[in-house]
Amino acid sequence: MSTASLRRSLESAALSSNKAKLSEIMLPEDDATIIKSKDDDLTRIKPRPYPQVLDLGGKPALDSKFNDDYSLRGAVGVGGGGQVLLGFDERIGREVAIKELLDQAANEDIELSARFLREARITGRLEHPGIVPVYDLGTKQSGAPYYVMRLVRGDTLAKALKTCNDEVLAEHALSRRLSLLDRLIDVCEAVAYAHSKGVIHRDIKPGNIVLGSFGETIVLDWGLAKVENEADLAPLVSAALSKPGNDADLTRMGDILGTPAYMAPEQANPDFGGVDARSDVFALGCILYYLLAGHPPLRGSADEILAQLSSLAPMPSARDPKLPMPPELIAICDKALAKDKSLRFPNAAALADELRAYRDGRLVSAYAYSRSELLRRFIARNKVALVASLAVLLAILIGAGLAFKFGVEAHKARNLAVAEGEIVKQEKQQVERALADVTRISNHNLTAANQIADSILGNLNEMRMGMQQAAGSLRTNADLAASSGLLDGLLQRYPRGESFATTRAPGTIVAVAPAKYRQALGADTSQLEHNRMTLERGVPILSRIYQAPEGFAAVTMVVPIKQGKTIPGFISMRIKPVDFLGGLLAEDAQSKKRTVWVVQDDGLLLYDTDPQEIGLNLFREERFNQIPELRQLAAEIADQDAGVGYYQSQSAGQSEPSRQIAAWVSLRPAENRGWKVVVLEAW
Predict the structure, then answer these.
(1) Which of 45, 318, 379, 450 is the most exposed place for a label (fewest CB within 10 A)?
(2) CB atoms within 10 A of CB 324
(3) Alpha helix (H) ranges present in 294-409?
(4) How far is the CA of 166 from the CAs of 1, 171, 226, in angstroms?
(5) What residue numbers does the annotated binding site cover?
(6) Sign of CA dihedral 69, 72, 73, 75
(7) Residues of the domain holding 400
(8) Which residues are annotated as a binding site for ATP?
(9) pLDDT at residue number 636
(10) pLDDT at 243
(11) What is the pLDDT of residue 276?
């Protein structure tokens, strides 16, 4: 067969699908071109006017040549101007999937060709077990591009979920769906890896996830992925939202990017902000919702779903009082599906951490535990110690019984038994009181830590938004030079800020408030890390704690001033953590027995009830090595977003050891910075 006739044969091979999914040579039902009214996860690229004619076999001839390196064994699917073929690598001796553009599509549609190559390069740079690897990239003699991938065998998560829903009893269906939680964690980890490389998937859904027969979980279809700091290929056309008959489960190209049933609000309406890693978190939250409820959170036509996404109404909760749903998973799901993306998990890694914490029986930061729940967890965590205590009590009771039965002196034995019984009763009461105290203190500390974190984040967000509003009024260099009055207004509006300044890029201070810091005018701050990051990223940045020239510990928030695509300068606010954070704490948040820490993500103490400790590193300070239990607690705080821990120490001259119960939560006051609030109470 000649090369030309082979090419014509390949281009005519067609199956009724849209974008080919690589699974077992046959396309799963959820990826068919025929749209069914109740399917939530169908994918179809905007139709292209490329003729497709079936040949007699509907697939390439067995063992026909694709090029010198690959032969063909069959067709996987065709659609959207391209097709996926089942190939065989003659050099290595393995089956592969070959995705190629049809010649007419490659020659007539530059945008489609660019997106095809972009998909291959993005997928190829993501080397992770949960992402299908790209083996080869090339061009056919006709000039049409192709790339070669691992052949993924298995069923999609969409098919697995539909199989779970076939159960007659709703409880059994829920149990089967929740058995897929480990697969969702695998997906979160694969997406977290992509986020670490600056890649956002934008079309995560069950139909793009393949479950292998040997435990593999593969995330497919990176054709709509967005790479940070790279231009997007597909423009947004809001007019498409008004087209009648749109399906909720279609991946849209040329209109909006993504699948409506799994799309974040900001993908449907730019008023909710830009698309970033938290948009993928929303899609993962939709899948978690499916695991809990048996269907996506929003259903209906595409127009209906997009209208719901664009509204200010909150997303529906997966909670169903008729089913025994885990409350922690519901709380995680609700947080992932927040329409305000600042309230979601910052990325897929944070969501994976929360899901692992639930799976492993640890505390979930998104869920507010009751006292009884914390008590049960404490008992489970300290089961060995409690069993040992009960064994001692049981031994005492047995001893008392034997004394009764076999005692030579009945009167003495009876008195001894009464005395020992009283001891047992007292020891039991002590254990119960200790458990109640630990539960009460842990619950109070966790509640206090959450309240403090909410207060800090709320105040910083309010100040940041005020600074961004002020930055928007500085439209010319003349406005920047005459910004003293603007800074005075910010200082009056936000008295918790120590000082405000405007700076001309890359770092010359042009105005400052209050007047006592005027000696800083003209200073060059271009070498400061937070100033450089603001100019590079174009987003608000929060500095690490540092020693200000005036001699106090300080933290600076920097907001860029944008004029079109340029950043001529920025507004900065400097705060004293000891005053700012201390002023936010409620009067009852601190006491003689209670201590509050606010810790930077690298371990530096931003705030401590004892001001002498500020600036020390909780994770690395040498003197903390003298208290091994405190060092272990610091390691737990560093590794976990939220939790409860304990430690005790005994200083010279103390007759009794000091016992501390700690609870902590995490917050992210800026894109580049994470803090932890730790509340400790003596016990």
Answers:
(1) 379
(2) 10
(3) 302-310, 327-336, 348-359, 371-381, 383-406
(4) 48, 12, 36
(5) 99
(6) positive
(7) 373-439
(8) 99
(9) 84
(10) 40
(11) 92
* Angle of CA points 672, 675, 678, to nearest 5°: 170
Domain assignment present for 44: yes
Whose tokens are 């300068």? That residue is: 569
> In which element (H, E) is residue 421 found?
helix 410-472
pLDDT at residue 331 in the model: 92
Two structure tokens written together for 299:
């259903």
Distance between CA atoms of residues 513 and 500, nearest Å: 5
User: Which residues of the chain are modeled with pLDDT < 50?
Assistant: 1-59, 61-62, 234-255, 402-404, 407-408
Look up residue 149 and give its two tokens.
Answer: 């991938």
- Alpha carbons 97 and 532: distance in angstroms, whole number: 45
- Is the Cα dihedral 161, 162, 168, 170 positive or negative? positive
pLDDT at position 213 is 83
Q: Which residue has the tokens 């997009």?
A: 306
**Is 395 among the domain residues?**
yes
Instruction: Give yes or no for a contact between 560 and 467, defined as CB atoms under 8 angstroms apart.
Output: no
Buried b (16+ CB within 10 A) or exposed e, 236-253: eeeeebeeeebbbbbbbb
Report the C-alpha gap between 369 and 1 in whole angstroms. 70
Closest CA to 251 of 123, 105, 79: 79
We report the CATH number of the domain holding residue 306 as 1.10.510.10
Task: Read off the CATH number of the domain in which 105 is found.
Answer: 3.30.200.20
Six token digits for residue 137:
């990239």
Query: What are the C-alpha distances in Å from 63 to residues 1, 82, 312?
Result: 12, 21, 56
Full-model pTM? 0.51
pLDDT at 290: 96
